[in-house]
């Protein structure tokens, strides 16, 4: 039964656990109503304990879908993985060490070919050495993952900023082009209206001419005096008759 459960957990799409049938509306309501310590203790002794969320792990490791994960996500050392470390500890030149390991892989591969020719039964030791070299190479590369993640994030943010700047510049240029087009359409509309309405054009010309030719103050005063004198003479003759 335990082997079957382990196979289900290791599957790509594991089946739900056996206690999923306990998550009914009635049981969830009972757990929600149980707020006192005694009720919580009773629930811990019954099947309803599966409905109580477990505390979050703060240290050590936890298992999910048949795999073990560390709470504090970090790169485990080679000694923790029971793998011999083929490069010195402390501050090192990783590029130089990677080149040395690369040369070691080539040498061990040639040795493996020689062993397969002379004594094939001794191939296991050579393959184990090649495996250890590759694990050391991958471990050195994985130590750069934090730096790679930071640089990748910086590059992604720079690209987003550049794309937004280009989009803003394109929007400003399009707005300026549209404004020029609208102004040109307004001028064309005013010109077309003046050409199609002669009365409006004539009144505009008359108003412009009357504004340009205005009588002087003396002439206007003389015309007022003459008009008033004629009116008085006309009124006198009409009374005599």
What can you see in these coordinates?
- The protein is mainly alpha-helical and 241 residues long.
- Helices cover 67% and strands 3% of the residues.
- The chain is built from eight helices and two strands; from the N terminus they run αααββααααα.
- It has a two-stranded antiparallel ribbon.
- Strand 1 (61-64) and strand 2 (67-70) form a beta hairpin.
- Helix 4 packs antiparallel against helix 5.
- Residues 216-222 have low confidence and may be disordered.
Q: Into which percentage range does the β-strand content fall? A: under 5%
Quick one: how many beta strands?
2
Structural class: mainly alpha
For the CA atoms, what is the radius of gyration? 49 Å
Distance between the termini: 144 Å
Categorize the overall geometry.
flat
Number of H- or I-type helical stretches = 8
Quote the average pLDDT: 77
User: Largest sheet, if any?
Assistant: 2 strands, antiparallel
Low-pLDDT segments, ≥5 res: 216-222
Question: What pattern of helices and strands is seen along the backbone?
Answer: HHHEEHHHHH
Helix content: 55-70%
The largest sheet has its strands arranged as: 1-2
Write the layout of secondary structure elements.
Elements: H1 2-10, H2 25-33, H3 37-44, E1 61-64, E2 67-70, H4 94-118, H5 123-142, H6 145-196, H7 198-212, H8 217-240
Antiparallel strand pairs: 1-2
Helix pairs in contact: 4-5
